[in-house]
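Protocol step 4 of 6: record predicted structures for both targets in the notebook before any analysis. Target 1:
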Amino acid sequence: HRYWKWFAVNKGGLRPGGRVLDIAGGTGDLALALAKRTGTQGQVWLTDINGSMLTRGRDRLLKAGYLMPAVQCDGEKLPFPDDCFDCVFVAFGLRNMTRQGEALAEMRRVLKPGGRLLILEFSQIWKPLAPLYDLYSFQVIPRLGKLVTGDADSYRYLAESIRVHHDQETLKSLMEAAGLERVEYFNLSFGVVALHCGLKF
């Protein structure tokens, strides 16, 4: 996941002084990488719908020496004005949103003209590997989760939510329907994860 996020940050085209929104930022690891790119003159906003996760992320960033705004909010109804951010990121959060079309429209709304939306999300693996990946996802991961954390159900949900999430082309179409342009995607780890990028004009 560190490589996937590193790839996403590099595709963001971030410059020192940029204003960035991290949606569903959870524990803050992506926000930390973004803050390092935008520098002391930039601004990264960390958001999450879950208050306890947001607190963990904020505290982690403070320990790393970064003081940044942290806002508890719903990705489907962002409390920010239009044309506010140079870049919006959401990593592994879109598939948990109920109204994804509305969420994508909100992400576009808060982007400045010329701004970029980047979505890093589990996707559809290269078909020849699908049977092996399903075996790993539905049999191995829940058992490891139970062994390590005592919680198999959360890891089973992870596999199930990935299975029903959009494939690469469908998500691209949803982004275009929300008004984003020049949408492209990059398959990572044979499509286990895909990074989708779109621009607002």
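Target 2:
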Amino acid sequence: FQPQAEFANGKIVGIEALARWERDGQVIRPHHFVGMLESDGLAAGLTDTILDQACAWKRRWQDDGLRLNLSVNVSPATLHDPAAADRYQQIVEAHGVSPSEVILEITESLLMADAARGLGVLARLRLKGFGLSIDDFGTGYSSLAQLSQVPFTELKIDQGFVFGAHSQPRKRAVVEASLDLARKLQLETVAEGVETVEDWQMLAELGCGIAQGYLVGAPVPAEDLAECVARWRAPH
């Protein structure tokens, strides 16, 4: 899980659940195995498992007084399943978690060669109260079309634009334009890849909502999250 902090008050307000595969003492990152799972028809099973385990931990933290929004990545392949919306609702509510505290992230560059088939599932998820995030915004070719069609609630600016933007005018321009677009569409904004105080300060000045990145905290096992949150101090 990787923590997310609000720029306005520096408080940790959310976490993203990240897939990691431990094999022979090494941690394998998702880009090495998620594509294979998708091609073998196992993406839905992975999504269900991560959502289930993440909600179990969210409930445990909540019972300990730590209330955090939860973000979970969803493979676009699963959005072709008409039963997905009902299934996700059942998984979340089985743990006593409200869908309104769960944000489903869809990677923008993968979001749909076949947008029409997934749009109905996404619309049902919004009606059930789930948040919808367009992940890695700006890395695909159909960003604006997706934003006009899909009922997103959050825009995540890709780390490739965020990292070092304080000293690179072209990157900063992309970040500013993304934040301006999000404001006009009334979307929450999350900046990925926030690693320096200078980038934190720039994003805060530009009115970004939430920071995610190594400055706030690296991804940690669930058992270590509470300590990670307690240790965090926002830059002045």
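Step 5 preliminary note on target 2. The first strand starts at residue 2 and ends at 6. The two ends are 25 Å apart (CA to CA).
Proceed to step 6 after PI sign-off.
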